[in-house]
Design brief:
heterodimer; A: 110 residues; Protocatechuate 4,5-dioxygenase, Chain A; B: 275 residues; alpha/beta; Protocatechuate 4,5-dioxygenase, Chain B; 8-stranded mixed sheet; two-stranded antiparallel sheet; 10 helices; 10 strands; globular; binds fe (ii) ion
Chain lengths: 110, 275
């Protein structure tokens, strides 16, 4: 269930300037408002795009968070690939819909 | 009156935001030329308002309250919701058409359960098409969203029924209305597979639209679409709804799979409304 809240933080961050201010002012306090696992919380504290992808965050949310962190497009794509190498296949969410979590990202590296 | 224009187009944020990274400049400029022609066709149709059937990407709607179908009743809309420097489209206000939108909503609700929103921030799914098609952002827009992002998703047969209801509602109104469906065919947007395009799958989908093969259009399962066409393939709902609104065959004006930096097989087409 906490993938829902993990994505919700990023959804609200992407669309609301006040949440962006809170992010910069006191990120841990902002995250206290969401039900997150330690791993999810850590991924947000560290801005770990690769782990967020593996945890199941939708790319339509994740790419804007990456832009918010000033990560260039090709580096964003590379971070997700590195995340899969480091943490394994996508665990949850829409990219883990088939193949028991062996997401198409493995086949699609090109 | 019957629709004065119905068409489809792609909306990848790269089409504006990553235009400077394109290697195949010839294909890019052909795409832009096709969009300029589409813009001209919409203008020449005398459309007073355009309904944009879009597949937004967690800009207004999230999994706390996700409508299958939603129509925008606002007097004006804001966009883009994304960083304007990232999308390379400045922030603007786009006029809505609240009175007509309300009439369309009431009419559509006779057959399809439709949500409405009086506030709507456009994301790239609408802003990118408008940037090319109504670059002054002066034509009133009625946004419609079909959830193509967060499963469970509305079945394709319902997308067809929705499109049919939309077409009938437009015909019952006095205004000259254009309908534009915008989405990807196969694509894997914003993932490590960004840039992958299943061209044969796209061509087959377009063939079904060109031949008005409703049964074949509605026969895709989400599992099949996901495997062959990626998560982005779920956006075929917008094309299917627009085809149902138009009740005519698609004329394909442009397609290329040669612009992977745009992360989608770039498509421009219009429906023949005279049949
Ligand atoms: Fe999209």
């Amino acid at each position: 269930m906490s993938l829902y809240y993990l994505q919700k933080v990023l959804y609200q961050l992407n669309r609301d300037d006040r949440v962006k201010q809170e992010y910069h002012a006191d990120l841990p306090a902002l995250l206290d408002g969401y039900e997150l696992s330690d791993e999810e919380r850590g991924a947000l504290i560290n801005g770990d795009i690769g782990l967020l992808y593996v945890l199941g965050v939708n790319g339509q949310i994740l790419m804007h968070y990456a832009a918010f962190l000033n990560i260039e497009w090709f580096d964003y794509l590379e971070s997700m690939r590195a995340g899969i190498k480091k943490y394994g296949p996508v665990r949850e969410g829409v990219y883990a819909m088939t193949g028991g979590g062996q997401s198409f990202t493995l086949e699609g590296e090109r | 009156m019957p629709l004065v224009y119905a068409g489809v187009t792609s909306h990848g944020p790269g089409m504006t935001g990553r235009a400077h990274l394109v290697e195949n400049l010839e294909a890019r400029d052909q795409l832009y030329a096709a969009l300029a022609d589409q813009s001209q066709a919409i203008k020449e149709s005398g459309a007073q308002v355009m309904v944009v059937v879009a597949a937004e990407h967690f800009a207004n709607f999230f999994m706390d309250n996700m409508p299958a179908y939603c129509i925008g009743l606002g007097e004006r809309h804001q966009g883009p919701i994304e960083d304007p420097e990232w999308l390379r489209i400045p922030k603007v206000a786009i006029p809505g058409s609240p009175d007509l939108a309300r009439r369309l909503a009431t009419d559509i609700m006779q057959t399809v359960d439709l949500a409405y929103a009086q506030e709507w921030k456009f994301d790239h799914g609408i802003m990118v098409p408008l940037h090319f098609l109504t670059p002054e952002f002066d034509l009133p827009i009625i946004p419609v969203n079909i959830n193509c992002q967060g499963p469970p998703l509305t079945p394709l047969s319902r997308a067809w029924a929705f499109g049919e209801a939309l077409g009938k509602a437009c015909a019952n109104a006095d205004e000259r209305i254009a309908v534009l469906g915008t989405g990807g065919i196969s694509h894997w947007p914003a993932t490590p597979d960004s840039g992958k395009i299943n061209e044969p799958w796209d061509r087959e989908f377009l063939r079904r639209l060109q031949q008005q093969d409703k049964q074949a259009l509605l026969s895709y399962t989400d599992e099949e679409t996901y495997l062959e066409a990626g998560q982005g393939g779920f956006e075929i709902r917008t094309y299917i709804a627009t085809a149902a609104a138009a009740q005519g065959p698609l004329e394909l004006d442009f397609y290329t799979a040669e612009l992977p930096i745009f992360a989608v097989g770039c498509t421009v087409g219009h429906f023949n409304l005279n049949t």
